[in-house]
Amino acid sequence: MKRTKVKNQKIRIKKGDTVLVLSGKNKDKKAKVLSVSTDTGKIVVEGVNVVKKHQKPTRNFQGGIIEKPLPLFASKVMLVCPRCSEPTRIGIKLSGDKRVRVCKKCEEIVDKV
Description:
The protein has no helices and nine strands.
């Protein structure tokens, strides 16, 4: 499978955020972000897009069927605001010298400062 870089991709979702899945089999599911890849524009969400993989036994691993979460595009999820608990778009404001993420609905700072 070919990996292509996404040009000018602005992923405003970070590891540890709670997101709402907008499309696919797990639509309307709230889950936590496990990892973010800015070069491909994909994220891994806990319990979403999980596949079963047949793993061969090695020295360190017994082997068997394991469940592995695969990445999905960041445009298919929306951040859930920790204050108003609703899915929202993300804005950026300056707080002193730092750029912080802001909820567009309630204007609350999303970043943990």
